[in-house]
Structure formats: C-alpha cells, structure tokens
Amino acid sequence: MNYEFAKRLIDLVGAVVLVIVFSPVILATAIAIKISSPGPVFADTPKRVGKNGKLFHPFKFRSMILNAHSLLKTDPKLKKLYHQYKKSSYKLFEDPRVTTVGKFIRKHSIDEVPQFINVLKGEMSIVGPRPYYPDELEEQTAKYPQTKKLLREALSVRPGITGYWQVTGRSEVNFDKRIEMDAFYARKKSLLFDLLILLKTPWAMISGKGAV
To answer: Which of 200, 189, 181, 136 is nearest to 158 (CA)?
Structure first.
C-alpha cells in the first residue's frame, strides 16, 4: 500500500470518526455562536490555496463579526489595523473583529473542526501544511524571495487541519520560518511523521500556545 493511498484512506475514516467524536463540541459551538452574535454559524472566509495552487473554500466556525475580512480591507476605521496585519505576516494578536466566543474557539482550534468537510471532499488532509491566502503568498514571497522554491514544495501536498507548523509555535512563527517547516513536511512526509504530529495536536489545542 503506497503512502498516498494509505493517507487518503486514513483521512476518510479519520474524518468520519472525528466528526462523531467531536459532535457534542460541534453542536455546543454552533449554539454558542448563534446566541452570542448575529450572523451565520460558518465564517465567510476567502478562498485559500490548496494542493498544486488550486483554490478552495475552507469551512470554519465563525469567530469574528459579520463581513470581517472585507471590512478589514474597506473600512477606513480599520486601515491602521490592516497595515499592521500585513506587516506582522498576516497575523493580529489583538483583533477587535473577534467575538467573545471567537476568542475561545480560535485559541483552542475549535473553529477549524468543520474542515473535516474539506477532508471528505479531498481538498484537505487531516495532517498537512496550513492553507495560505493567495494575497498572503504574493506579498510574503515578495518580502522573502528565498521562499519561492520552498513554496512549490509546500504546495505539492494537500493542506491540513493540523500539521508540523500548527504543533510547533503556530502564530509565533513568521512566514519565512513557517514555509520552511511546510516544505520540510512535504519533503519528509510519511505516515510515521503524521502520527507524531497527531500525537502532539491535543496538547496544542488544549494549551492554545501561539494561537491568535
């Protein structure tokens, strides 16, 4: 059994099992989002870059106010915040758009749970690099031109819900280091490496270390 076939089989079985295991969390989160702020349960997030550069829409629980992503770019009140967002490798450690429930589910990665749908669709894997925004890649590779070759390696595999970067610092790691880690994962991919990452994931979720 080759790696790709085994990984896809594990993704399919694992996604179904984990959706069942997380069903109480999924239900509780959906209710909390609906009663705490106006808007849908799922976030209206922009498309991300998947395997071989193919764009897809990731499913996420809504952790921000309505139209948060478009407001960041168009609302004059958030102009300074948008510049800060781009300057800090597309991360904000203090983001006024995040709701009260959103802060909790982001810290513990609960907002990512609906991405099991993307796994079932074949757009993502349970383990792999985190998917990037298209404009993030354009601007960050211009800022760090040495990462272009590494990016091609990172995009040779399906992005994941959890991965090497996610369990090793997350948002405390800048883009250039993150892309190095993603390329390293793509180069060294194996079922054993995936297993080691999965074993580290529960602590990363519970501790919330590096999450924004």
So the answer is: 189
Contact yes or no for 59/117 (Cβ under 8 A): yes
CA dihedral sign of residues 168, 172, 176, 179: positive
160-162 and 125-127 strand pairing: parallel
Helix 3-21, helix 23-36: angle, nearest 10: 60
List the chain domain ranges: 3-207
The tokens for 188 are 């060294």
Alpha-helical segments (H) within 3-133: 3-21, 23-36, 68-74, 79-87, 100-107, 116-121
Question: Distance between CA 201 and CA 149 in Å, rounded?
Answer: 28
Q: What is the 3-state secondary structure (H, E, C) of 107-124?
A: HCCHHHHHHHHHHHHCCC
Q: What pTM did the predictor assign?
A: 0.84
- For all residues of the chain together, what is the average pLDDT? 88
- pLDDT(204) > 70: yes
